[in-house]
Amino acid sequence: MNVLEAIKKRRSIRKYKDVGVEWDNVVHILEAGRYAPSAGNLQDWKFIVVTEEDIRAKVARACLNQSWMETAPVHIVICSILERQIQHYGDAGKKYAIEDASCAAMAMMLEATELGISSCWVGAFDEMMLRVALNIPDRATPTIVLTMGYADEEVPEPTRTVLESVVFLQHYANRIKNENMVMWNWSLEMEKQLHEGKHGLKKRLEKVKKAVKEKLEKKMRG
Ligand SMILES: Cc1cc2nc3c(=O)[nH]c(=O)nc-3n(C[C@H](O)[C@H](O)[C@H](O)COP(=O)(O)O)c2cc1C
Q1: In Å, how far from its chain's centre is CA 158?
Q2: Which atom of ligand 1 is nearest to 124's Cα?
Q3: Quick one: CA torsion of 156, 160, 162, 167, rounded to 10 degrees?
Q4: Phi and psi for 49 in degrees, rounded to 5?
Q5: Cα of 193 to ligand 1 centre, how many Å?
Q6: 119-175: per-residue pLDDT in tens?
Q7: Which residues line ligand 1 (CB under 6 A)?
Q8: CA of residue 1 to ligand 1 center, whole Å
Q9: 3-state secondary structure string, 64-100?
Q10: How far is the CA of 10 from the centre of ligand 1 (A)?
Q11: CB-based contacts of 202: which residues, under 8 Å, 6+ apart?
């Protein structure tokens, strides 16, 4: 799966099968988070992995009673270490901390997608309740909760705005002329040609292979 495929394939899943996620896969997901970019490479995050049922129930309650979260066998709570960011960047550090946690969350969700594991980003929670549930000290701030598990529902792709409505060229509100041709039809056409090209090449190779094999067999028969 290439990255864009994973980005498009990922869906927020809110109903999970009653099976755990293999620890190896959890580690791969955490590793993706570890490699995410962070401001000044401060890596100002801690990842709390929650697998125990009663603690997951507390997390779901802290997330404003989103009880569907209890069906997820794994919760990952991303905490930011604000102090380090503020030491380095002053007030801007607060913003960077959220951005860093978001990068880690996205990297984890994409790795999960690659592994066939579904996820959901949960931003709605009561910070104090989460702190109490997970013994989070003052120096760490819970920023994002992720649920992980094997999907037990199929969710249709939510609509996305068209590219043309969100992209400007050079300055705000300057739309690209013939943007449909430049940004979309063009790349779709290239993709098609590339795909056909690869396919065509494979077909030709198979033909050559077959011809060589037939020649060899003929020779051997005398
Ligand atoms: C910052 C943020 C906070 C979110 N918080 C919640 C949440 O508390 N509960 C929930 O069910 N989904 C939450 N979501 C998931 C969004 O609802 C979901 O990403 C959106 O509807 C698009 O669907 P998709 O993820 O399948 O593309 C959150 C997503 C983001 C990025």
Answers
A1: 16
A2: 8
A3: -150
A4: -95, 125
A5: 35
A6: 999 999 999 999 999 999 999 999 999 999 999 999 999 998 888 788 888 889 988
A7: 11-12, 14, 66, 120-124, 158
A8: 23
A9: CCCHHHHHCCEEEEEEECHHHHHHHHCCHHHHHHHHH
A10: 12
A11: none
